[in-house]
Amino acid sequence: MKPIKTIAALEEIYGEANPRSLTKVVTQMTPLYREWIEACRFVVISTVGPEGTDGSPRGDDGSVVTIADDKTLLMPDWFGNNRVDTLRNVVRDERVSLMFMIPSSTNVVRVNGTGIVTDDAEVLKRFEKKGKLPRSVLAITITEMYFQCAKALMRSKLWSDEQSDQKVPTAGAFVKERDAMFDADGYDAGYPEYAKSRMW
């Protein structure tokens, strides 16, 4: 297929941006963005490193990040699979993007900025939960923040229950596809109990 290789060619197709899509951008926390982010329990974080790009979901039972000040967000790194792709990337390339989503809302809040990974004891203590501490915290400095128009979530009906019974591959099935001897059904059945003690 024929690639578009210049910005000029791209702009010839799309024309100019809607002015409001540019003027809506803020460079630090505002009262309404604070309200949104404090209510948000789920975010997708995107980073880049020498091996390429990475996008990773993060979630919590309360706000997924803590607002340290009008320019800084703190995200604890709770237990996972220890691939630490996001953290490896940030250590080598500070660029970070976040996409905050709230079930039932068709708007999305986006943050672009830079990050550092810290294991500072005082910072970790801020996130103590059920006697556990994260092993590190990602501190994100906001460069720009804005809401994304609702069309993508409206088109996909992301929060509708129309497809709640849709059959999709399970985690166990994905592993079994690579290892025919893997007990996919046992893994899927046992995972909720396994995960209970490893959420934080």
Description:
Helix content is 31%, strand content 28%. It is an alpha+beta fold. Strands 2-1-5-6-7-4-3 form a seven-stranded antiparallel beta sheet, with helices on one face. Strand 5 and strand 6 form a beta hairpin. The longest helix is centred in the last third of the chain and has 13 residues, at 184-196. The model has no long low-confidence stretch (mean pLDDT 92).
Average pLDDT reading: 92
The amount of beta strand, in percent, is: 25-35%
With strands numbered from the N-terminus, the spatial order across the biggest sheet is 2-1-5-6-7-4-3
Query: Helix share of residues?
Result: 25-40%
What is the 3D form? globular
Tell me briefly what this model is.
This protein is an alpha+beta fold and 200 residues long.
